[in-house]
Batch of 3 targets.
Target 1
Amino acid sequence: MKISRNARDKYKFDSAMFSERGNIDFEGNVHAVRLFVEKLNQKRDLLNYPELAVKSSEVYGLSLMTEINEYIYDLYLEELKTPTFNQELYDFLEEKVGKSRLQESTRLMIEEFPPESVYKNIIGSKEFLETQDSDIKNEVLFIDEFVSLWLSNANPALSPYFEFFDDENLEKNPDYVTIIESIHEFMESKPIFSRTGKNIIATLPEPAIKFPHSLKNQLEYMQEHWSEFLGKWAYLLLTGLDLIKEEEKMRFFGPGEIQVPDFYGLDFENYSKDSDWMPKVVMLAKNSYVWLDQLSKKYKRSISHLDEIPEEELDQLANWGFTSLWLIGLWERSPASKTIKNWCGNPEAEASAYSLYDYMIANDLGGESAYNNLKQKAMQRGIRLASDMVPNHTGIDSKWIREHPDWYVSLPYPPFPSYQYSGHNLSSDSKMGIYIEDKYFTRQDAAVTFKHVNFQNGETRYIYHGNDGTSMPWNDTAQLNYLLPEVREAVIQTIIHVAKLSPIIRFDAAMTL
């Protein structure tokens, strides 16, 4: 993607983004695109004019389009097997406009869209063009930059980004227009590109001609008609289109259409047989800590452990016809979850019942022995205990996070450049640091990742928060990576462990099963 000198001066882009030719080639790096877009949006008054915000998906698509055009152009040159193609084009243009005028026009282009060494004033534009690379002067090597420049400026769908590659200053030179017209004439006289059945100068602008006002439609055209010879770019096209669709998606207006997967024929159905009690369950749900507090007040004594629940209370439930008691919040919870709630102004809050440290009965509730005691007494009255199991995620400082941080969906960098993690460490383990994104505390954002630092080796990863895809991420949870077989096996063994303790299991956020 061509970037003018004026745009570079205005936005102060990192020079590491640029190739020696002075172009930016993201090559599908979404993170680099987001860093680039952040620079653009920092120069815009988005508070008063939010419609001016630059979208990462559009810049990704724009860059992808220019890089694919360059790739197709190179394919065409390989097909021609004419290593002197640029020299032939240069000689043709020299004949049309004259040597000195062609040199001056090329110099003006280099000044307007400078290669790295020219932009950094390491060498002047005139000297740069006279420099040779593999016995070919840069003025010959860079002659095809006119093609890239023309393609971008002739595409109406790219008009929001013309400030990057606007050739208005070059058009003040009458020879520039002549050069563009002569390039067309030269390439129209050359053999067609076998993969499209057209000459190259007709092939490259074809998506823009078909869909002049839609970048998305142009990318879809490339995908539909050119994928078979695009190699890795075909995959990157899919990514680009997915990004555009994601940013175009309307949110907060209810769930989308439910798509029920069909697995018939993949395997035999082998469901466990329903025992006679299963369809007849009458379940009562109780938040464990809240219920124990209520019972303490009711019976006017401290009731803090599960085995201290009065038997007359169980008798009452049985008399009312309940056959199952669902105890919410049995497991050892995440200390970080409680800390986050406390820091946010709720000093009496407990940790979330679904942000777990480990699947062991909480010590505060009396541990497993107290639970088994209650289970036995309840079963004597025909009441089966039920508990939760959360296959989708764990707490952000869970036992698995400590022992297997690689079991979670993560990136080695923040997915969005605006994310900052400068708050206090939420981890109680001296070997690691856990930091949630700053704007969570100011309620400005609900970030999709938290920062995990291994203090032993310095490794930093940005782990995604748990999310069921319907709303905001849960900022005290960490998303398990089910692409890993060891994660799937660990979850299976955990489910078996829970099943041995609880006759009835309620799966929370169970879409990963």
Target 2
Amino acid sequence: MSKMSEAAKARAVGINHVALEVRDIDEALAFYGQFLEFSLRGRSDTMAFIDLGDQFIALSAVPEVTDDHERHFGLVVNDKGLLGRRLKEMDIEIVSDRFMDFYDPWGNRIEIVGYDNIQFSKTDGVLRGMALSVLQKNEKAKQELADEGMAP
């Protein structure tokens, strides 16, 4: 491949949003509201947008939802243990021994990821705006970021 074609490529820099299919917007918001604290960027009868600071989850109402057992997304949270306990209280089955994965009522597979243990980082301004400025990375995540030249 030539240098010209390499230079002409755009670089992936993150995920802006994830879109999930659900049967009913109100039911979906009630389900996610049982274990996540969030606000909405907007909503209509057929769409809702869960705000994640500089990203969002789009919920889209469709007449029929089909199960998909491998496709998933990783949802970063500030307290993975707290969310795990809440899912247990809700009798939500964790489907992976290695990760905290579960299915929502519409068959969407979600992997829960703790903010402290991954390279993914929010800027100080975004964390401040989300009232999460106390979040910190653990030493392993800090080292991974440093190894990639991205230490905070």
Target 3
Amino acid sequence: MSLLGRAVGSNVNRLTDNRSLEEPLDAPRLKLIEPVPDQISRFPSTRYYGSKRRLLTWMYGHLGSVRFDTVLDAFGGTGSVSLLFKAMRKTVTYHDAFRFNEDVARTVLAERLALDRGSVEAGLRAVGPRIGPISEHFAGMFFRDSENAWLDGFAAQENKWAEKPEIKSLFRYLVYQACLKKRPFNLFHRANLALRTATGVNRSFGNAVTWERTFEHHALQAYDELAKASLISGLPTTILPAGDATEIPAGFDLVYIDPPYVSREDRYNRDDYWRRYHFLEGMTRYEEWPDLIDHGSDIRQFDPPPWFSEWGRKKTFRDRLFAFIDTHRHSIVVLSYVSGAVPSETDIMAHFQCRFSRFSVHSTAHHHALSKTRKRELLFVGIPR
């Protein structure tokens, strides 16, 4: 069955306005449409490596005049770009390689929050610490023992929401954000708890106060950000199951691609996205997690699917990217990219020139979240023949 055939998420009916001309102009159905840049300013903050959150206004400047109705966000990640398309009143289909990002998308792209703040507070207070897979396999690696026990307790409580996926995803999203805030560099690529716990150390990064706040505190902060950003478009949003983007069939007006970047320098390719976020992915497979863990790994990660690794290798990335573009060549294709990656900008321009009737390239200086290195952010826009 195709990914579209197994799509999950929200499908909201289109809003219709059957108001007659005789109705007063101040009828309750009327609503001011907030300018897109104003909506962007309220989007929830992100702590993911390579997030496009800070580039959305720039991207909107180049995409706002492009005509399309349906859009695929093929490597959706934090959901920030899908939120941009939603603010532009487009019909969005979201997809990502990670299962945990299904929870992220189901939450940030929802028409309304699944619970009020009081219910979220009560749910977090109800978590009882326990010893489970996280305590047993990740002691001394990412969080303190008491924090590991809290996460095990949270996972044990998820069964209560088994029949309510929107609520389950909301709580998971909030805890994911809390986990990231409590981690040095907001990542899980190193077993570096000592960066938090060592005393008498002068640190040039991070915030010790933030690290030591509770999961509950950070989760409620994340909820408050969501509440401010609530975005009701009245248009359907589809969230595809996590998997390989190459399996998604063509047929969208516009396809947006923000793939992993493979650096020309191998030393920058050691920590791929799987290594950075394996812990959050493990939380989505909590019951089977102990059987998946590679105990020879210094960070107890488990193996990614073969296709995941192929999107991050020099030898295979180029072919995968160009094959994906070819699949969707009858759509408008928008590719986010960065200078210094493989394939080169020249190679990509040549491919766009062969596949599309016309294309444009836009660039801006930018440094990715959690990186001080300034690069050129690139946006390729291909218009089909």
